[in-house]
Amino acid sequence: MPENYIAAAVRQSLASSGASAASHERFGYPFHFYETIDSTMTEAARLAEEGAPTGTLVMAEEQTAGRGRLGRQWVSEPGAGLYFTLILRPKIAPVAAPVLTLMAGVSLAEAVRPFVSDRVDLRWPNDLLISGKKCAGILVEMRADPERAQSERLWHVLMGIGINVNNTQFPEGLETEPTSLLLEAGQPIPRVDLLISVLKRLEEDYNSLLVDGAQPMLKQFSTISSYAAGKRVRAGEDGHFITGTTAGLTPEGVLLLRRDDGGLEKIIAGHVRPL
Amino acid sequence: MNLKEIRDIVELITEKGIAEFELERSGFRIKISRRAAPAAGDPVFWQAQTPMGMSGMPSAPPPNAQAGPTVGAGARNTLPTPPPSMVPGGGSSSTTSEEVQTIKSPMVGSYYSAPAVGAPPFVEPGIRVRVGQVLCIIEAMKLMNEIESEIEGEVVKCYVENGQPVEFGQPLFDIRPYASGRKR
């Protein structure tokens, strides 16, 4: 059976976009493509358990059980968006790993920016918004490799990304109004070009993070994100909220929130929503 | 003493399985403890006056949170360098008098006992777990960290309720190793 045209195009673009595939830890190598799959996260987890290296890309044209955080459903309109998971094996301590979620948002925002004339925003920690509507979802999971974790600190991170590219159908009842690049740009966006651009940004930002630490990336986040400071928000989930004004990020990427009574909170989990 | 020397010491005490190490030189003192839970009075690394739980906020602050208004939290509290006992991706564990091993949280975050809202929990007391089996999820900044069991044994206690915030080093589970179970 001939390979799907988009898979062939991705392979060709990856091959021509830089160093040879034989070079170490290029994002997109090896490349696993599926016309239909339950979830790229599930398949990537399986591959990671088998020892798949950093940069391994698992992509699907359609996910029948695409998932978001805590088992929430991610609807993947077939052939319209980009749905993929990257396997990473960063040599950093797990406590330092959460900042990878912010990094993914920054990389995505920068890759998407040229297509939507600068209207990108990041809602902490990593919701990609265009004109206030959600355009992409990022799900990052991490797990140790119990066989080797003790001696080598080897473990893996699965970075799942779903981008509404040329999507026009969205499920009802989403908490944040969805959009797609097509709807925002007013024209179809070449998915392969966007994927290559996203992979390149992620690879650069990931390597910079490991070498230079998180501070340059967090500074960039704060430049992009209207939520990083001075925004009135409520934070929390399931009816438990606090309100206040965002007051910057800690060196770990944790959002600071100045309550109306003057107290300062660190927001580590739950949603942040505009007031 | 420079960073490399400290790193060397940490590697040495990890290698030798030393629980606590203290060194004093003129005007300088370093103390490294491999027991995960910080003692009272030690600097807390996470401070949230109103911890952000997912499905419910606790009525009382977590053990290491301080009472009173949180002022200047960003400057005072930084995430610590993990102690050498920390196992990547998995909680550290320690053995108590009854040979029960306590799995502790490797990071600050929200605790989830199940993979999805409304799903059955990963484990419960009485459940037998194998090495590498997922016990729970700790979420920090939307990074979902699946905590695995490092031992084969029976879960005898779950310390934390679903949705509650957890501190670094906070006990999560007690697991009684099977005789054939071994720490990997």
Which SSEs are present, and which pair or pack?
The complex is a heterodimer of chains A (275) and B (184).
Chain A: H1 5-16, E1 31-37, H2 40-49, E2 57-63, E3 82-88, H3 99-112, E4 120-123, E5 127-130, E6 133-144, H4 149-152, E7 155-163, H5 181-185, H6 191-212, H7 215-224, E8 229-237, E9 240-249, E10 255-259, E11 264-267, E12 271-274
Parallel strand pairs in A: 1-2
Antiparallel strand pairs in A: 2-3, 3-7, 4-5, 5-6, 6-7, 8-9, 8-12, 9-10, 10-11
Helix pairs in contact in A: 1-6, 3-6, 3-7
Chain B: H1 3-16, E1 20-25, E2 28-33, H2 73-76, E3 93-95, E4 101-104, E5 109-112, E6 128-129, E7 134-140, E8 143-148, E9 153-158, E10 165-166, E11 171-177
Antiparallel strand pairs in B: 1-2, 3-4, 4-11, 5-7, 5-10, 6-9, 7-8, 9-11
Spell out the key features of this protein.
heterodimer; A: 275 residues; alpha+beta; 7-stranded mixed beta sheet; 5-stranded antiparallel beta sheet; 12 strands; 28% helix; globular; B: 184 residues; mainly beta; 4-stranded antiparallel beta sheet; 11 strands; 29% strand; elongated
Largest sheet of chain B: 5 strands, antiparallel
* Strand-residue proportion of chain A: 25-35%
Structural class of chain B: mainly beta
Main β-sheet of chain A, in a few words?
7 strands, mixed
Task: Please state roughly what percent of the residues of chain B sit in beta strands, choosing from under 5%, 5-15%, 15-25%, 25-35%, 35-45% or over 45%.
Answer: 25-35%
Strand order of the largest sheet of chain B: 3-4-11-9-6
Structural class of chain A: alpha+beta
Helix content of chain A: 25-40%
Largest interface: A-B, 56 and 56 residues
Distance between the first and last residues' Cα of chain B = 33 Å
Low-confidence stretches of chain B are 35-91
Q: Unreliable stretches of chain A, pLDDT < 50, 5 or more residues?
A: 146-152
Let me know the average pLDDT of chain A: 89
Oligomer: heterodimer
Query: Rough shape of chain B?
Result: elongated
> Could you state the order of secondary-structure elements of chain A as H and E?
HEHEEHEEEHEHHHEEEEE
Q: End-to-end distance of chain A, in Å?
A: 52 Å
- Secondary structure: number of strands of chain A: 12
User: Roughly what percent helix of chain B?
Assistant: under 10%
Shape of chain A: globular
Work out the helix count of chain B.
2
